[in-house]
Design a protein that fits this description.
single chain, mainly alpha, globular, 8 helices, 164 residues
Amino acid sequence: MLREFNTLTEQEQQLMFDAIPLIVILVGAADNVLDEVELSEAQRLADIRSYNNRGRLNAYYEHIDAGLTARIQQLFNGMQNGVAEREKYIVKELSKLNGILAKLREPYGYLYYHNFRTFARHIAECHGGFMRFITVGPKEAKVVDLPMLQPVPKPPEDEYPNLI
């Protein structure tokens, strides 16, 4: 178990570990297609973040990294009810993170919130668009900023320097 998850129930911990797969499905399949580019980019980003995150969330990304693609596909295959139903379900699940992030001690609530949002942005932009413009399509744009998550304020710089 991760140190910062000591105050969480097993269900809350599982939702934290499923947050990245759910975000990938929400953003990547907003156009009703979860393609190989999005899956491989999610895996690549988790690999990078497992060792390149200033030491604060490395253990989290190491935990989800090994089976990330399989977990994304497992969750996605269980949600084949169409985009609207899938989005509604994922928004409901991700909304539960608000209470969980509030339970985490500083600076972890902020770090997870920030990481979830940047992960979503990266998945939305992985196709590249036209000459690196218009990289986020209109369907992804609706969900890419994860509006179901309440903003977690950044802790004071003097207490947590060089946080992000």
